[in-house]
Structure formats: structure tokens, C-alpha cells
Specification:
Elements (H helix, E strand, L loop, with lengths): L4 H18 L5 H33 L8 H8 L5 E5 L4 H13 L5 E5 L4 H5 L5 H6 L2 E3 L5 E3 L1 H10 L7 H4 L2 H22 L10
Helix pairs in contact: 1-2, 7-9
Length: 202
């Protein structure tokens, strides 16, 4: 909300200066003066409103830099959800997140970008290097899951896909899940570095 407030403030001051210079004028210039008065008042109200809203937002959602780790974990309710640490830039990862959220009827899953420093305050045992390399998940019990096992855990816990559980506990299903995950990793690699793309062009 505070973006551009300096510019608004400057505009407000400019209006006041123009009004001061125009105060002795009459006729059409007086009409201009009245219009500028209204604009000046409107901009001032915007500035005041922005400061008030920013103060409310800071009180309701305190910045993670100002909180200790324990307080932050309590605010985020870390032990209530399955936390998926993913790449928020990669389009394939964003699509996967979107599809999971659509099927998460019980609101069991939360997503955080590995680029967000909050991740490493909530889960000090994770490193940015590892999370950049593979998708990670932290369960409500604190267990850390990596790679294709994340997708298996998601399927096991989504209300919409629980019916598939009996079909996934065998070697064939394990192999297919791993293949799907590895293909997604390759797509992500291609997105960032096309020269190292290992996917066959159609």
C-alpha cells in the first residue's frame, strides 16, 4: 500500500504550491484553483488511508523478520499442515500446486516457495540448496520427505485421491511415480537451462 506514497506526497505539495500562486486569480483560473483544491484533498485522503491500512496489516500479519522462530511457528500453525516447499517461479511447479489445491478439500496442504526465507525459520533443518534441487515436504509430525515421495504422500492424504491408495503400494506404481517426478524435474531444468534440456523434442 505504501508504494508510490512519496510520489503522492510530492504531488500533494505541488498542488498546494499551485493553489498558493492562484489564490489571487479570478474567472477560469479560479475554477482551476477549486479543482486543484479537490484533487489535493483527495490525494491527502489516499495517503492517510494507505498509512492506516499499512498499520493494520502490520499488526495482523507481523513481518517474519521481527518474530522469533517459536512465535512464527505458532502463527503459521506448522504442526497442523503438510508443508510443500516448491519452486514458485517454475510454471510446471505452479501448475502442480494449483491442481493439488483444487483436490485438497480438507485443506491439509500449505505451500511455501523455497526462495522465501520464512521457510528456513519455520524449518531450520532444511537448506535452500537442497530445496532448490528437489521438492520437499514437512509433515505435521515434523518428518521431512523429499522427491517423488512427496507426490506419493500427497496422493495418500488428499481426500479426492485416497481411493487410489491400494493401487499405489506396489513396485510398479512406485516406478511410475518416480518416472513422473523425474520428468517434471527435467521440465524444470529445461525451463531454466534449455542448453541442458534432456527431454526429446516432439
Amino acid at each position: 500500500m505504501l508504494l508510490g506514497l512519496k510520489q503522492l506526497s510530492c504531488f500533494h505539495i505541488l498542488c498546494i504550491i499551485i493553489l498558493w500562486e492562484q489564490k489571487e486569480l479570478r474567472g477560469k483560473k479560479k475554477t482551476l484553483s477549486n479543482m486543484l483544491k479537490k484533487i489535493s484533498l483527495f490525494v491527502l485522503l489516499i495517503i492517510l488511508s494507505a498509512y492506516v491500512q499499512d498499520s493494520i496489516a502490520k499488526e495482523k500479519f507481523p513481518h517474519s523478520k521481527t518474530l522469533d522462530k517459536q512465535t512464527l511457528r505458532e502463527i503459521y500453525k506448522v504442526n497442523k499442515y503438510y508443508w510443500v516447499i516448491y519452486d514458485s517461479i517454475c510454471p510446471y511447479c505452479r501448475d502442480a500446486k494449483k491442481n493439488i489445491k483444487l483436490l485438497d478439500w480438507e485443506s491439509k496442504f500449505q505451500f511455501l516457495s523455497y526462495r522465501d526465507d520464512t521457510v528456513y525459520k519455520l524449518f531450520p533443518n532444511l537448506t535452500k540448496e537442497a530445496c532448490e534441487r528437489d521438492v520437499h515436504m514437512v509433515t505435521p509430525t515434523g518428518e521431512v520427505i523429499v522427491g517423488y515421495q512427496v507426490f506419493k504422500t500427497i496422493i495418500d492424504n488428499l481426500a479426492a485421491t485416497k481411493v487410489l491408495n491400494p493401487l499405489l503400494h506396489n513396485d510398479f506404481a512406485e516406478k511410475k511415480l518416480r518416472e513422473i517426478y523425474e520428468k517434471m524435474v527435467k521440465k524444470r531444468t529445461c525451463y531454466y537451462n534449455k542448453s541442458n534440456c534432456k527431454l526429446k523434442k516432439k
